[in-house]
């Protein structure tokens, strides 16, 4: 117990005093989380809704694929992207390895399956008649998608929350592709790994505490949003 | 494309000839997966049952907590477990820091939220009258638990599968707690990360990646098929 206590005592000043290195990683982590989740949502939401509402061929296969890719280890995603981005590889000319940009890409790729699979599941969980009715009343594709997203919003926001959580806590892909370069392209999670490997447990603990706090703030905020629009207010809103 | 092809060509012989290093990693990974998942199930299932069946105060709050713990980053779990098992920590006297045993514990802690959070969700998804009826017929706590587990088995198995997948794929805690000693307490996933940190790009990495992918596909695929089959088979069995 004493060790933990000592480490905590050493860790707290670092957080309270606003260590510049720590501040920089916090900034980058928030940036990565927001941007990667936004990219994943921009690509994944239309895909998920299309799978959920669509009646096109092969949508079961796409859905199964999205579900399976949830089980793919982040390390493998990292390795796969590395193989694509090394100078000799097909996308090597983009010079992405060990840059900040690749960290955004890696986390967006990791977050994408969550958005697609959980959005599709949420849309499929809507009352069966709802979308059919909208279709028969002549809703176009865009109206249908908007309706589906609005009605399934609790599940959809859950998907975004899961995606956000992944972008915050996964380290493997970030470490492989970004190279975990001190103070440059480190997220809080990969910085923790870095500090431990150097034996700086107090620093690692400080970073870990900040990471947990950040996760609580960001995901808790979204969680509140999730249940805010519940009930009558949005449900029976007529399109003006 | 030629580059990817070369990588594969270099990697395949390592796998087919059973490179001892890779075989060793595979064996460690399988051991970690099964032991940690078993630990997590042994601890988590009773808690999950209590949360799913119980009618005690604060159950809701505990369930929210369980759900939130799914978001626990592996690196944080890793550092917490490490501080516990270091010589001056609570589990220090066991002297398991930087060993495979510490890795078992860390991965079990990581897998636990899946069992604790998903089991009650599965039980609460049962038809509302079922458990009430069983209670009214005078089922004891053990019988009720057995019934709930049997009826919610698809969801419960999904929780176990999710836990197993986490123990195989997560690296953050393994590296921190085990120290990643080559061929000793490295899993496939953590070895992969380490290789990328310290060595030039070699066919080893591609080989390890392929083995890891195969392991995930085979293990999770088999379990999922099993889950579906068990789900159908038992459905109409009368006691």
Question: What do you see in this structure?
Answer:
The complex is a heterodimer of chains A (240) and B (239). Chain A has a domain at 30-187: MetI-like (MetI-like fold). Chain A is 76% helix and 0% strand. Chain A is built from 12 helices and no strands. Chain A has helices at residues 2-16, 20-53, 59-69, 74-85, 100-124, 128-136, 141-151, 153-169, 172-178, 188-197, 201-228, 232-235. The longest helix of chain A is centred in the N-terminal third of the chain and has 34 residues, at 20-53. The radius of gyration of chain A is 21 Å and the shape is globular. The termini of chain B are far apart. Chain B has helices at 2-16, 20-53, 59-68, 74-85, 100-124, 128-136, 141-151, 153-169, 172-178, 188-198, 203-233. In chain B, helix 5 runs antiparallel to helix 8 (153-169). The mean pLDDT of chain B is 87. Chain B is mostly helical and 239 residues long. The interface between A and B is large, with 45 and 45 residues.
């Amino acid at each position: 117990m004493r060790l933990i206590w000592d480490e905590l005592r050493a860790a707290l000043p670092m957080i309270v005093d606003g260590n510049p290195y720590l501040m920089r990683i916090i900034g980058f982590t928030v940036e990565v989380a927001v941007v990667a989740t936004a990219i994943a949502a921009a690509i994944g939401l239309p895909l998920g809704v299309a799978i959920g509402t669509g009646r096109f061929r092969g949508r079961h296969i796409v859905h199964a694929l999205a579900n399976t890719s949830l089980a793919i280890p982040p390390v493998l995603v990292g390795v796969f992207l590395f193989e694509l981005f090394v100078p000799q590889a097909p996308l090597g000319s983009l010079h992405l390895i060990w840059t900040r940009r690749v960290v955004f890409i890696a986390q967006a790729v990791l977050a994408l399956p969550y958005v697609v699979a959980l959005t599709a599941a949420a849309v499929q969980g809507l009352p069966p008649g709802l979308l059919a009715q909208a279709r028969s009343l002549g809703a176009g594709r865009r109206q249908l998608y908007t309706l589906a997203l609005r009605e399934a919003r609790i599940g959809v926001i859950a998907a975004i929350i899961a995606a956000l959580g992944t972008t915050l806590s996964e380290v493997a892909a970030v470490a492989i592709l970004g190279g975990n370069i001190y103070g440059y392209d480190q997220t809080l999670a990969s910085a923790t790994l870095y500090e431990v490997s150097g034996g700086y447990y107090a620093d690692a603990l400080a970073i870990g505490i900040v990471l947990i706090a950040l996760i609580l703030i960001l995901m808790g905020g979204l969680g509140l949003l999730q249940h805010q629009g519940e009930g009558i207010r949005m449900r029976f809103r007529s399109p003006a | 494309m030629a580059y990817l092809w070369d990588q594969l060509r270099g990697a395949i012989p390592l796998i087919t000839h059973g490179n001892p290093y890779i075989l060793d990693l595979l064996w460690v990974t399988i051991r970690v997966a099964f032991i940690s998942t078993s630990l997590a199930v042994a601890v988590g299932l009773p808690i999950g049952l209590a949360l799913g069946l119980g009618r005690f105060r604060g159950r809701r709050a505990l369930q929210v907590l369980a759900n939130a713990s799914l978001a626990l980053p592996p690196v944080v779990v890793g550092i917490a477990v490490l501080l516990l098992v270091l010589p001056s920590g609570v589990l220090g006297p066991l002297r398991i820091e930087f060993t495979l045993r510490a890795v078992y514990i860390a991965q079990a802690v990581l897998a636990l939220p899946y069992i604790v959070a998903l089991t009650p969700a599965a039980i609460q998804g049962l038809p509302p009258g079922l458990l009430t009826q069983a209670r009214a017929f005078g089922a004891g706590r053990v019988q009720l638990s057995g019934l709930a587990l049997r009826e919610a088995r698809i969801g419960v198995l999904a929780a176990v599968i999710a836990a197993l997948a986490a123990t195989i794929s997560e690296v953050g805690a393994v590296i921190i707690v085990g120290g990643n000693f080559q061929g000793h307490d490295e899993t496939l996933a953590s070895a992969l990360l380490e290789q990328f940190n310290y060595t030039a790009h070699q066919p080893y990495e591609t080989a390890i990646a392929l083995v890891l992918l195969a392991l995930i596909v085979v293990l999770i695929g088999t379990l999922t098929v099993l889950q579906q089959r068990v789900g159908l088979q038992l459905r109409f069995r009368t006691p």
